[in-house]
């Protein structure tokens, strides 16, 4: 047991840091969040990484993965967090990509993996429905075989950033008479330009437009868009969720967030002295940092296990629960730190993108929206209660 | 980065686990802790034969060439079986002082006897008014020719009834709370002027109040430099803190496992209570606390040899999480066991008691949270300069 970095790992960190510093787009530096960015900006870093061969580090090398060790991946995420980079979106890279290379046909791999790698194709996720949230298997969207096509009808919801999407992956019911709800589901890909797909925005409590309703009316997709076998989509869906969870802890980003919180609290004053010197406030920051250390070393242990061929198993549920709790507490404390200047609402005022009328310090502008927005994290990806159900069943055996 | 145990460490764990399973079952332990002596010197001898007492010492010092990771492995197993024998005071504390600062004479006088299991130490550092501050000392040691004269009162010296020797912290100069002027001595318990009041502790161990009245200690028994011992004491206490964190992670794992098992057996309203989601989620939270305690104990153990600020922050962070996690796991274990959890006959209550006492040993959650916060401030100030 040791925590040392090898000379090769130190050299790797240097290489990565220099690459990010030399290649990260100027216009995105200091932006921090993807909030309100356009499609091109959101894809910019992904496309640069695609050219470098670093856009899908976790994939098997034969599909374009980097073959990095867990320690190298840890260094990679730390260095990206250091520069607040806008990372590739998960829907292609971490979700549908692994499903396609694991369960898809050779033709499907050849057609879709390159676009995910190079960041030219934007994917969205059609899982949840108005009546199927945590109980995902109760989904009602149907796909009916008609010659060489499936005809899809139904409604998906919470389709994140579908307004930009080129392709979507949808869970659809192909056997309404299956014995168990999980058994009649298929995993189908669809070009978002297919007639019958309609995306409608959902405005969320932070004022943003991140998620959508996606309506599917007599959408005809070719049968070759079926992933794997008909009626076995639930297996692929669960596989995807386990992959999604393993990256969800967000340790490096939260560490960076604590640094920023400390800076804010060193600027804000309480009784004429920096807020960070207040015992009550400092204690909350310390507790957060200590809990983050516990998460970090739990993730490192998990990664070490994965390198030896274990997982990602149900232990990744711990990372999801604790990681999201910490992200939420971080935004909560940041909002607390900015005091009065958490109140002003800037979206569309005086007009989007305008900076001529600054109110309060810059660091306060996103404090409340971020806090409101991050409440989603304990709900998505399988709510934190669902994660506890998974541990109950898979680890405690209850 | 590497989280694997060496073959030697795995071997120590396996052979110790076997010994404890065969000879340290819960009923045997109950009889031992309520016996007159409260421990088993013959068990200590078996620990010596297994090499546990030699594990963390260098080969030069007569040990097996291991270190803190070996102690962690051993302490986790001790935590699983609620072992009461004085490994931390003798091996981690006294052994640590000798290892880090002992003279060749002191090492040859004591280390062989410690490693062989013939000599047991206790660590007398706490005082009635000092709480967890290692520098808050009213015990004095005055230089008098070739000897020091000790006067004072040490509180709750764990393992002292079984010890022949004490490691004592005392003030050789300065005022009560000064950081300077602190020294460390080896004191034979039967030295003239040492008196003790022995008693059991709530978690099944034994301790003493130790009084020093004009006790003459040869100058050769001073460990390290006179008046400059605080950094050394802090280091040893950090090592001991991490050792009991490992003990806590062992105890937490068992308390959790026993609770899950009980919830499968115990039926109410016609079904096993483990089928109730409200209890399932609490047992998952216990599981997560235990996992994070393992992570924090590894983290702190691996950072013991880093610079002082890094080490102290790591140890305090671990002790905060273990204090909080231990309380949560212990309290929930009792609650989910229901009335049976309140009985002395079930092991789970004994795990709860040990976990509770671990929080207030070597500084509780509040103490370590404060130490962590202050060190973070120092960190920030250093980074700003």
UniProtKB/TrEMBL annotation, chain A:
Span of domain Acyl-CoA dehydrogenase/oxidase C-terminal: 231-395
Protein name as it appears in the record: Acyl-CoA dehydrogenase family protein
Domain called Acyl-CoA oxidase/dehydrogenase middle: residue spans: 124-210
Keywords, in A-Z order: FAD, Flavoprotein, Oxidoreductase
Species whose genome carries this gene: Henriciella marina
Required co-factors: FAD
Similarity section: Belongs to the acyl-CoA dehydrogenase family.
Family matches, as InterPro entries: Acyl-CoA_Oxase/DH_mid-dom, Acyl-CoA_Oxase/DH_mid-dom_sf, AcylCo_DH-like_C, AcylCo_DH/oxidase_C, AcylCoA_DH/ox_N, AcylCoA_DH/ox_N_sf, AcylCoA_DH/oxidase_NM_dom_sf, Mycobact_Acyl-CoA_DH
Family annotation (Pfam families): Acyl-CoA_dh_1, Acyl-CoA_dh_M, Acyl-CoA_dh_N
Domain Acyl-CoA dehydrogenase/oxidase N-terminal residues, every copy: 6-119
Flavoprotein in keyword set: yes
Domain of life of the native organism: Bacteria
Coiled-coil positions: none
Automatic annotation (TrEMBL), chain B:
Domain Acyl-CoA oxidase/dehydrogenase middle: 122-215
KW Oxidoreductase (keyword) present: yes
Domain Acyl-CoA dehydrogenase/oxidase N-terminal: 6-118
SUPFAM superfamilies: Acyl-CoA dehydrogenase C-terminal domain-like, Acyl-CoA dehydrogenase NM domain-like
Residues annotated as domain Acyl-CoA dehydrogenase/oxidase C-terminal: 239-358
One Pfam family hit: Acyl-CoA_dh_M
Gene3D superfamilies: Acyl-CoA dehydrogenase/oxidase, N-terminal domain (1.10.540.10), Butyryl-CoA Dehydrogenase, subunit A, domain 2 (2.40.110.10), Butyryl-CoA Dehydrogenase, subunit A, domain 3 (1.20.140.10)
Cofactors, names only: FAD
Domain of life, per lineage: Bacteria
InterPro entries hit by this protein: Acyl-CoA_Oxase/DH_mid-dom, Acyl-CoA_Oxase/DH_mid-dom_sf, AcylCo_DH-like_C, AcylCo_DH/oxidase_C, AcylCoA_DH/ox_N, AcylCoA_DH/ox_N_sf, AcylCoA_DH/oxidase_NM_dom_sf
Record-stated family: Belongs to the acyl-CoA dehydrogenase family.
Protein name listed in UniProt: Acyl-CoA dehydrogenase family protein
Organism: Henriciella marina
Taxonomic lineage of the native organism: Bacteria, Pseudomonadati, Pseudomonadota, Alphaproteobacteria, Hyphomonadales
């Amino acid at each position: 047991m040791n925590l040392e970095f090898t000379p090769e790992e130190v050299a790797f960190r240097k290489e990565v840091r220099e690459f990010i510093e030399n290649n990260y787009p100027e216009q995105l530096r200091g932006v921090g969040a993807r909030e309100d960015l356009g499609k091109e900006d959101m894809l910019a870093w992904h496309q640069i990484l695609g050219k470098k061969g670093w856009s899908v580090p976790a994939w098997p090398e034969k599909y374009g993965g980097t073959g990095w060790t867990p320690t190298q991946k840890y260094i990679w995420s730390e260095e990206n967090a250091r520069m607040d980079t806008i990372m590739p979106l998960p829907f292609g890279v971490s979700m549908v990509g692994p499903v396609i290379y694991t369960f898809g046909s050779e033709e499907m791999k050849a057609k879709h993996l390159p676009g995910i790698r190079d960041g030219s194709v934007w994917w969205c996720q059609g899982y949840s429905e108005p009546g199927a949230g945590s109980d995902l298997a109760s989904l009602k969207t149907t796909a009916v075989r008609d010659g060489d096509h499936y005809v899809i009808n139904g409604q998906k919801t919470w389709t994140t950033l579908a307004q930009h999407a080129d392709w979507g992956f949808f869970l659809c019911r192909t056997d309404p008479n299956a014995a168990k709800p999980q058994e009649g589901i298929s995993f189908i890909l669809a070009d978002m330009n297919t007639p019958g797909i309609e995306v409608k925005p959902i405005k969320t409590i932070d004022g943003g437009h991140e998620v959508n309703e996606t309506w599917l009316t007599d959408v005809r997709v070719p049968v070759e868009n079926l992933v794997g076998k008909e009626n076995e989509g639930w297996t692929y869906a669960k596989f995807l969720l386990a992959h999604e969870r393993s990256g969800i802890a967000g340790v490096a980003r939260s560490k960076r967030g604590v640094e920023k919180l400390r800076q804010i609290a060193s600027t804000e004053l309480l009784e004429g002295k920096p807020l960070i010197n207040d015992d009550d406030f400092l204690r909350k920051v310390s507790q957060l940092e200590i809990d983050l250390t516990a998460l970090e070393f739990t993730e490192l242990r998990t990664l070490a296990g994965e390198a030896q061929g274990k997982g990602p198993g149900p232990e990744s549920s711990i990372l999801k629960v604790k990681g999201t709790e910490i992200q939420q507490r971080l935004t909560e404390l940041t909002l607390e730190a900015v005091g009065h200047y958490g109140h002003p609402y800037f979206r569309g005022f005086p007009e989007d993108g305008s900076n001529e009328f600054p109110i309060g310090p810059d660091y306060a502008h996103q404090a409340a929206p971020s806090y409101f927005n991050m409440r989603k994290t304990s709900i998505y990806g399988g709510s934190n209660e669902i994660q506890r159900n998974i541990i109950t069943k898979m680890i405690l055996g209850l | 980065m590497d989280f694997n145990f060496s073959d030697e460490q795995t071997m120590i764990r396996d052979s110790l686990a076997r010994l404890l399973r065969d000879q340290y079952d819960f009923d045997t332990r109950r009889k031992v802790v309520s016996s007159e002596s409260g421990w088993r010197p013959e068990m200590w001898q078996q620990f010596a034969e297994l090499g546990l007492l030699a594990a963390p010492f260098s080969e030069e010092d007569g040990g097996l060439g291991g270190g803190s990771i070996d102690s962690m492995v051993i302490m986790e197993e001790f935590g699983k079986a609620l072992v009461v024998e004085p490994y931390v005071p003798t091996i981690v504390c006294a052994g640590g002082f000798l290892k880090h600062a002992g003279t060749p004479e002191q090492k040859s006088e004591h280390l062989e006897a410690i490693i062989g299991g013939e000599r047991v130490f206790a660590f007398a550092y706490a005082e009635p008014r000092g709480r967890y501050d290692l520098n808050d000392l009213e015990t004095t040691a005055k230089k008098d020719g070739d000897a020091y004269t000790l006067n004072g009162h040490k509180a709750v010296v764990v393992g002292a009834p079984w010890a022949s020797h004490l490691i004592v912290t005392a003030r050789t100069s300065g005022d009560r709370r000064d950081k300077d002027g602190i020294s460390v001595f080896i004191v034979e318990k039967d030295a003239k002027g040492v008196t003790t009041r022995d008693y059991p502790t709530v978690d099944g161990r034994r301790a003493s109040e130790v009084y020093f009245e004009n006790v003459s200690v040869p100058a050769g028994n001073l460990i390290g430099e006179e008046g400059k011992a605080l950094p050394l004491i802090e280091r040893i206490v950090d090592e001991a803190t991490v050792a009991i964190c490992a003990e806590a992670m062992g105890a937490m794992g068992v308390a959790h496992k026993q609770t899950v098992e009980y919830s499968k057996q115990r039926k109410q309203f016609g079904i096993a209570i483990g089928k109730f989601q409200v209890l399932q989620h609490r047992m998952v939270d216990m599981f997560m606390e235990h996992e994070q305690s393992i992570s924090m104990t590894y983290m702190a153990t691996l950072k013991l040899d880093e610079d002082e600020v890094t080490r102290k922050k790591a140890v305090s962070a671990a002790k905060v999480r273990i204090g909080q996690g231990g309380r949560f796991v212990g309290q929930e274990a009792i609650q989910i066991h229901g009335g049976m959890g309140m009985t002395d006959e079930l092991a789970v209550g004994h795990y709860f008691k040990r976990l509770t006492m671990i929080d207030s040993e070597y500084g509780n959650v509040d103490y370590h949270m404060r130490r962590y916060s202050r060190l973070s401030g120092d960190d920030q100030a250093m980074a700003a300069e």
